[in-house]
From TrEMBL:
SUPFAM superfamilies: Glyceraldehyde-3-phosphate dehydrogenase-like, C-terminal domain, NAD(P)-binding Rossmann-fold domains. PROSITE patterns: ARGC. The gene is argC. Residues 6-144 form the Semialdehyde dehydrogenase NAD-binding domain. Coiled coil: none annotated. This is N-acetyl-gamma-glutamyl-phosphate reductase. It comes from Neisseria animalis. It is found in: Cytoplasm. The keyword NADP applies.
């Protein structure tokens, strides 16, 4: 039997951290050997997360105690600004890294500093990092030492557009609008008035209309795939009263004669985690809950032959975060794409 690689998780007390622990617990090629948390150092993982009782006997350690340099791969499930300070030392020791924060996603350092409000500590690592949208950068991810895991909104919006952009089928000079909704877990596992049940429950609202941090990340992808499209991009996120799930409704104009359903179906023919549904279908967030899946459908807008509508759904904690991180790791180490990611969606 092939020896398992050793994995560490930095910042393992958040929603993406516990999701990584859940997914990696059944991975045939990986053993989690280190989990860190400065605030919970000395606490048993099973005590902190009762859902993991009987699965892990690990104890949270500080990063200094955890011997992360002995891991083959380290996941950073930390707030923005942490990985850029701590990852370079591990990179220098040959450790491979998947960063779930935004520290290495945006190549233009000035743009990153503008949107994230801090000075970047390791611009050289940004230049080294590969953007980890698996279905877009597979070959580069396979050779990477540092992968920047995409954000949840960028994943949900970019996956359905990727084949059409690569084919150059979007009309230049026309608006491209992404109307997106996310469950409350997208805000992270922290004390926040806006995430309280009495605030988020039985409520629906837009936010970040003046500019959301994921906007430059999405525009970077658009610009890299088809010239002249990013300038017309409009992105409006909304908070919905559910725990998990993300839904993107994308309005776009395509070149005459384009058969988008055929383009998407052919492009994703061999992709295990992208489901191109039949035209006219309406994918639901509950159909991907707990699974590393993106379900997509596309159809013409009623009464407007020039406008197409894409519907895209993911679980923001899985394909939008921890699941895609595991998928990136699988590609980096040559494992089967679906290793540790074969969970069926949860229903109800």
């Amino acid at each position: 039997m092939t020896a398992k690689i050793k994995a560490g998780i930095v910042g393992a007390t958040g929603y993406t951290g516990v999701e990584l622990l859940r997914l990696l617990s059944t991975h045939p090629n990986v053993k989690v050997t280190a989990v860190t948390s400065r605030s919970e150092a000395g606490t048993s993982v099973a005590d902190y997360f009762p859902s993991l009782r009987g699965i892990y006997d690990l104890v949270f350690q500080t990063p200094d105690e955890a011997a992360l340099e002995q891991c083959d791969v380290v996941f950073f499930a930390t707030p923005n600004g942490v990985a850029m300070n701590e990852a370079p030392a591990l990179l220098a020791k040959g450790v491979r890294i998947v960063d779930l924060s935004a520290d290495f996603r945006i190549k233009d350092i000035a743009v990153w500093e503008q949107w994230y409000g801090m000075k970047h500590a390791s611009p050289d690592a940004v230049a080294q990092a590969v953007y980890g949208l698996c279905e877009m950068n597979r070959e580069h991810i396979a050779a990477a030492q540092l992968v920047a895991n995409p954000g949840c909104y960028p994943t949900c919006v970019s996956l359905p557009l990727l084949p059409l952009l690569r084919a150059g089928r979007l009309q230049k000079g026309m608006p491209l609008i992404a109307d997106c909704k996310s469950g409350v877990s997208g805000a992270g596992r922290k004390a926040s008035v806006g995430s309280l049940l009495c605030e988020a429950g039985d409520n629906f609202k837009a936010y970040g209309i003046g500019g959301h941090r994921h906007l430059p990340e999405i525009k970077q992808t658009l610009s890299s795939l088809q010239d002249g499209i990013a300038d017309g991009f409009v992105f409006v996120p909304h908070l919905t009263p559910m725990i998990r799930g993300m839904h993107a409704t994308v309005y776009l104009h395509l070149e005459d004669g384009t058969r988008p359903d055929e383009i998407l179906r052919e492009f994703y023919r061999s992709s295990p985690f992208v489901d191109v549904m039949n035209p006219g279908s309406t994918p639901e967030t509950r159909s991907v809950r707990g699974a590393n899946l993106c379900r997509i459908s596309i159809q013409k807008a009623a009464g407007n032959e020039n406008v197409w509508i894409i519907l895209s759904v993911i679980d923001n904690l899985v394909k939008g975060a921890a699941g895609q991180a595991v998928q990136n790791m699988n590609i980096m180490f040559g494992f089967a794409d679906n290793a540790g990611l074969q969970q069926a969606p949860l229903l109800p």
